[in-house]
Structure formats: C-alpha cells, structure tokens
Amino acid sequence: MKLSFGEKVKNLREDMDLTQSALGKKINMTQRKISYLEKNKYEPSIEDIREICLFFKVSADYLLNLPPFSK
Fold first, then answer.
1. pLDDT band at 40 (very low <50, low <70, confident <90, very high)
2. Cα distance between residue 19 and residue 24, in whole Å
3. Could you read off the pLDDT of 6-22 as tens digits, one per residue?
C-alpha cells in the first residue's frame, strides 16, 4: 500500500524529530496547516509542495506517488 502525501510528510517530519510547530516555522506554515496536510484534509499548493520538497530534500514525484516515466 502506498502512503498518502500526508503520511509521507508526517514520516519525514518524525524522522527528523520535529514537531508540527517546529516544521511550520522552518517552512513558513502554521502548525494547523501542517496538521491538516498530514491528515490529508488540506490540498497543498504548488508552493507548499515546493517548500516541503526543498526542506526534506525529496522529489515531488515521491510525495505525490507519481510513477517513474520512461521514454
């Protein structure tokens, strides 16, 4: 079973021993927004996805469960 966007964000955050508030401060989001993202109750904007990818050094493909593309 593939993890959802929110589950992946939560796992990444917990792997770094960050609270939702601490992550929010680092990526300029509120704790509430992080909570909603992790529960998949909020659709992230492109900018949200970008900031999360840059902070955790992961690809958007990974977060969005996109398959690898071949030519």
1. very high
2. 8
3. 999 999 999 999 999 99
Distance (Å, whole) CA 71 – CA 46: 26
Could you identify the residue written with the tokens 């509430």?
A: 32
Q: How far is CA 57 from CA 8, 41, 54, 62, in A?
A: 13, 23, 5, 11
User: What is the total residue count of the chain?
Assistant: 71
pTM value is 0.90
Backbone angles phi, psi at 67, to 5 degrees: -75, 155
- pLDDT band for position 67 (cuts 50, 70, 90): confident
Q: What is the DSSP letter of 31?
A: H
